Amino acid sequence: MGIVKKRRTKFWERFMILSAALFFSAFFAAIWLPKLQYQSRESRLSEEVICSDLFRRQSVPDDIFEKIKQSDDPGKILGLYWLESDFGTQDVYSDMRKAEKRWSHLEGWQSYLETCRAVWNDLEYFPVAEYEAERLNVTFSDSWMLDRTYQGNRKHEGTDIMPSVNQPNLFPVVSMTDGTVTSVGWLELGGYRIGITAPQGAYFYYAHLSSYTGFKEGDSIHAGDVIGFMGDTGYSKEEGTTGKFPVHLHLGIYLWKDGKEISVNPYAPLKYVEDRKIKARLNK
Hints:
Structural class: alpha+beta
């Protein structure tokens, strides 16, 4: 009987120790897991978030596209989606109102939100006007960060819009946004280009133009204004060089942070306005 009693005592001692260990594990988990989750969320709003590859890629799944197309504030919806999903790497909770409550009180939220809105909320039109003729159309694909070799190995920081007819001075290029012309003229890489700063601060860069329509630096511009025509200029220090590549429009979108230029992928913004095209007439 003594042996049985000792075994029972040891059993209960071990049981109590295990129970206490489980209790304290659960207790500390209840305290620290929310704190760790909070810190994880907070880290997504660091000052360097807009410099990250994940933010710059501007990934937008189809279901989120449907939401932003029905919203007056696409930048806010996308900003919340990226934070909730850790920039598309996790499943996301769909209730944006609850998501905003989770993020809006954190340090860095307002600056981050303004950046998202700068890229998205000024967008109004697709940058190439549309002809009625079926043979005259354009296509584009996601070429973000693909290799380029002119001037050494580098990455493609934009989207190329390709015409169905390889003819310069045929397809009108229009401003996607309201804004101010902040750069115009020749660049070795971009050829004849024009840069427009939109109201919320993003810089829209239209390159390889064959000609301009008379805008100069400092001019105000309205979304849908024709700013030039698609061409094949560039890849040379000599102004006016053409023929180094097929006719196309290179579109870039840039932000500024602490004096540093940051490119973001224009592909999703182009998809967003793909159905908003200015009508063009073909001169006969």
